[in-house]
Amino acid sequence: MKFFRRVRHKLILDHKKIQYLKYALGEIILVVIGILIALQINNWNQSKKDKISLNENLIKIKSHTKEDLEQLDELVKGRKQIADLCKKARNSILNKTENDHLFLFKISGTAFADFYFKPNSGGYESLKNSKYYGKINNTQLDSLLAKYHRLVDDIAENERSYNQFTVHQENYLDTQFDRSLILASAFMPLDSLATKATPQSEYDQAFIEYTATPAYRNVISLAAWQFDTMIDQYHELTELGHLIIKEIDSITTG
Question: Where do the TM regions start and end (predicted)?
Answer without folding.
Answer: 20-41
